[in-house]
Design a protein that fits this description.
Elements (H helix, E strand, L loop, with lengths): L1 E8 L2 E8 L9 E3 L9 H12 L3 E5 L11 H6 L2
Parallel strand pairs: 3-4
Antiparallel strand pairs: 1-2, 2-4
C-alpha cells in the first residue's frame, strides 16, 4: 500500500511517500531518495515495487522548501 503523509521539518511541511507490504510482521526498511524530478511516478513505482518485495519504504520530498516550484534549477537551490 502506498500513502502520502507529511512531517514538519524546520517549520516547513515535508511530504513523505510511505509504502508498506501486506501483513503485520516486522519488516526491514528502506529510505528511498528521489531523483531530480521529485516524488513523481518513477519514485512511486519503485516504492511500490520494493514494498511488494517485503520492505517498508519511506521517500521524503527533498524539495519541500520550494513547494510547487516548476523550475528545476530553483527547486535544487532550495536543497
Amino acid at each position: 500500500m502506498l500513502e502520502e503523509t507529511q512531517i514538519i521539518v524546520d517549520g516547513s511541511p515535508m511530504k513523505l511517500l510511505v509504502a508498506t507490504p501486506q501483513g503485520s510482521e516486522r519488516r526491514p526498511g528502506i529510505l528511498l531518495s528521489h531523483y531530480q524530478h521529485g516524488l513523481g511516478p518513477f519514485t512511486r513505482r519503485n516504492a511500490e515495487r520494493l514494498a511488494s518485495e517485503g520492505f517498508i519504504v519511506v521517500a521524503p520530498d527533498h524539495y519541500h522548501h520550494t513547494p510547487g516550484e516548476p523550475d528545476l534549477t530553483k527547486r535544487k537551490l532550495g536543497l
